[in-house]
Amino acid sequence: MAPLTTPTECRGTMHWYQGNNGHCSHKSLISDVILYFLIYTSVMLQADTHSCGHIVPKPREVVHNVHLGEPAHVVKRRSLDQQLRIHLVYDSGLSNLPQEKETLVKDVLIPTAVSYWERTLQVRRTAHPVKLLRSCQSDYIRFKDGDPYPYCVRNCSEVTKCGPVIVPERYLEACRIARIGSKYKKVGYGGPGVTNADFVLFVSATHEERCTVGSAVAYAAYCQLEGALDRPVAGYVNLCPNDISTEPHNLHQMHATLKHEILHALGFSSGLYAFFRDPHGEPYTQRSPSTGKPDFNSETELYQWSDKVVREVTRYNWRVRGANITRTFSLLVTPRVVEEVRKHFACPTLEGAELENQGTLGTALTHWEKRVFENEAMTGSFTQHPVISRITLALMEDTGWYRANYAYAEELTWGRGLGCDFVKLSCLEWMQTRAASGAPIYPFCDRVRSSPIRTECSPNLDSVAVCNLVEYHTELPSMYQNFRELPFVDPKEVSHYGGLVQLADYCPFVQAFNWQKEDSGERGTKCSVHQNNADPEINFALEHYGDNSMCFLHHTAWSLHHCDTTRDITHWGSGCYMYRCSVVDGLVVIVSGKEYYCHHRGQILEVHSIQNDWLHQGSIVCPSCHDTCEVSLPL
């Protein structure tokens, strides 16, 4: 932008800078305005949250009793030693996507997610092709003595669907019909089915109504179950076309979203809890002699599971603002899950893994509780860096349908080793108790998000983050009022403050986010993503995103100096910087190519660097060298 040309034009606001000739010369105030407003007005904090779109299928949408060629007693005896094989069927509608999105879905997102589950899960070996059943026109089926196939009373449907996708004829068995007078017959065409597969996944990308609800990026479910052990053998995943992001900083979340959704199709769904089986293939939940299925609960619209799978647990004296209340939670209590959650939280008396209590049927009970498991990938919303933990793999084993390879479990640090108080008490009581003893209130926080923004680091130092404690326009429900007082907040208004993520019971925590600029898209705050680098002209704290970068706290606000001009950077608190570890030098922080050496936790590194004729000044706080570096460092 051209500089203003006369002192009159920048009356009262003119400033000077030192040019290449060593003299201070006139420079337009507009440059300062750009610096100022890029921070104050053009950059907005955007909560990085997406909800899961899974909805438990209605009974009519699920076909049972797919026959895989062998009787149940033979299948039960099989070992879980067959690596899961998923056969992909792409709906023709994917061709309506922009080429870049179609390529991303077919060549990157779906293959990556499917490959993860194929590596991670094993099933009982089957030697026969998967032939899916045709859906029936009515809700009634019959069985013929000695015949494992169900017969439709009246007739088969003209088309069989799996979610929004019409199943091609080649994947379907012939139609079987039961007529009046006990006449059973097989009519029409039967396709060859799918060989060398254990699960058929139909992939679509259509703008369904569910894409308009909340912030769903994709959704998935099962549609057909096999007859021997009720394992899902077919399902679908539908991606919402408008929400498929090709931005590099969103790829990790897109991958995690599809891994999450595919797992709903494979078994993690409240609609399937009643069908879970023990390691011997016996059902945890009693079956009706007349239908062979568990009882159906018309109020919840779910097959009713036994308390061997999900149990209600009451917590008394649950502390909230101004009261102690009684709350009842639903916990998944299958054996391997109980073992893993007790180890993770270091709580030997923990009854099980708490399930989400908020949201609609597709969210409540079908995900882990956000307050307890935060960034576990199978919680009901995506907030930051989701991981598939050992606890989720334990659930898949407890279905009775899979064996999990725990080598592919991802590290969950949230709540790890924090004991029974963390997982059994309210976050208000946890924060109060910790603060009273002088301990950190981690993983929660109590700094109100404000403008200018004061950033922090994520607990594992992989992202710039912010405490998501915000003010709501209305008072929060009493059971979710998690503060009795807050610094600089009118006591009468404290009931309006809570965490940004409602599924976490409004408990505030440090959360990664995206910077959103008015006209130039957004960038994330994950340190390892090169595309998150800011433009040089607004990189005031000299950050660097990419390989070998992590988050460091700032000690003071950064400032820019140019001759007599000083600009204090009001958004500060943390940043991503390159670092290296060595046995000789310990932890070394690299800022604009210069190395700064950390000798102990809490050491302050003073940074001075001239970039584009501006002196950048700031300070970085050293973390623990031994906690940060994997190499053996000198003492």
Give short descriptive properties of this protein.
Leishmanolysin, domain 3; Elastase, domain 1; 28% strand; metalloendopeptidase activity; disordered N terminus; five-stranded mixed β-sheet; hydrolase; 38 strands; 635 residues; Peptidase_M8; alpha+beta; EC 3.4.24.-
What do you see in this structure?
This is Leishmanolysin-like peptidase. The active site is at residue 261. Its EC number is 3.4.24.-. This protein has 635 residues and is α+β, with helices and mostly antiparallel strands. Among the domains are: 59-285, Elastase, domain 1; 433-515, Leishmanolysin, domain 3; 516-628. It is built from 10 helices and 38 strands. The strands form 12 sheets. Strands 3, 25, 26, 29 and 30 form a 5-stranded antiparallel sheet that branches. A 5-stranded mixed sheet has the order 5-16-17-15-7. A hairpin with a 2-residue loop joins strand 35 and strand 36. It is globular. The two termini are 53 Å apart. The model is unreliable at 1-48 (pLDDT under 50).
